[in-house]
Amino acid sequence: MDFKVGIVGLGYVGLPLAVESGKLYPTIGFDINSIRIDELKSRIDRTLEVTKTDLEASILLEYSKDAKDLSQCNFYIVTVPTPIDEYKNPDLRPIISASQMVGSLLKSGDIVVYESTVFPGCTEEVCVPILEKESGLKFNENFFCGYSPERINPGDKEHRINNILKITSGSNQKTSKKVDAFYNSFIKAGTHLASSIKVAEAAKVIENSQRDINIAFVNELAIIFDKLEIDTHEVLEAAGTKWNFLPFKPGLVGGHCIGVDPFYLTQKAESVGHHPQVILSGRKINDQMGQYVAQKVIKLLGSKRKLSAESKVLILGFTFKENCPDTRNTRVIDIYEELITYGVKVSVYDPSAEVFQVKEEYGIALEKSIDSNYDAIILAVAHSGFLKLDWNEIRNSTPIIYDVKGILPKNLIDGRL
After folding, report:
1. Are 315 and 386 contacting, i.e. CB atoms less than 8 angstroms apart?
2. Would you please indicate which residues are annotated as catalytic (active-site) residues?
3. Could you tell me which of 21, 40, 22, 44 has the C-alpha nearest to residue 31?
4. pLDDT digits 0-9 by tens, 291-303
5. pLDDT tens digits for range 337-381
6. Which site among 14, 21, 43, 281 is 20 to 30 Å from 75 CA-CA?
7. Contacts of residue 209, Cβ cutoff 8 Å, sequence gap at least 6
8. Residues whose CB falls within 8 Å of the CB of residue 313, separated by 6 or more in sequence, listed in order
9. Are 157 and 243 in contact (CB under 8 A)?
């Protein structure tokens, strides 16, 4: 197949993919965010996933905010977000909108591949009918589909798109081979061709559900061991000496993958009559950890007679993970909101986060610098810059230091998960 590629959505997933595709094939990177398109044309990636050098090396890649520019493509890849709504139900509006747009452009012989995380069956049950309706074409006769789940790890400079093995699939055998050949042409780690689109969808959604459940287990252990006055990290270090012990650590579970994907699986499970107890229990535990941290800090303030309406607490870090500017579904907000209910004054400092985005989405004005006069400091995100701070000096001026990430020396802190 003479690939003419159209990437729909240029976020953390779509842009790295577009860059690699654009080194080999004529590629149009499309996004509805005009500011994003203008920045990329100027070789600026605000997500920090791709360097200026990478962007310049992708000589066949063009950017557009006009859907008509995609009409020349014959191989579409949809990489839009698949979030959840306020009731924690899958929000399919972005993928539905993308399908409507692509459907209006489809020609006979075209292939549409989805990378967005969805529940098993979504591609064929939700997206395909939209493509058929908008195009007037018939699925698996005039156009074809594939599913190749994204495995991007934001902020990770070691595991990149071309060295992460890729799952591929197609709506029939011929399409599967074409989809697999496309990804194999630039992914050095190779591919795994799944037997069907549903298998590939299911494989993706359980990857993050598995991590969610494992983190929930150690989060529950952290709560238990705290009540027993045992250091959780010391327990995990000791248990980790066994060859097959899994190295998970307690912490906040946010972002647009681990804290979201399990709800796509549970919703589908309930639609076929099964209530998934283990997955939902894990979600419940992980969702309460921000409040748990805040309550621990409040108790520490009370024990040191520092709790009052004038108490000042600084949260270090607001993004959902270290060395990444993304604040979507950050669970640090849970710490902030719980502290506010106790009437203390809470400040947040995170030089990695986008100031405007935090203000617009969460109503929080980030601090421009760190003062030296706080009653408590909570290290919530392990940005590399925070590790370089003089924590001995901070210890001397701060009554309480709580380490959510468990990375500071034990003698410098008053508590940790």
Report:
1. no
2. 257
3. 40
4. 999 999 999 999 9
5. 999 999 999 999 999 999 999 999 999 999 999 987 899 999 999
6. 43
7. 261, 262, 265, 279
8. 297, 301, 339, 344, 345, 346, 347, 374, 375, 376, 377, 378
9. no
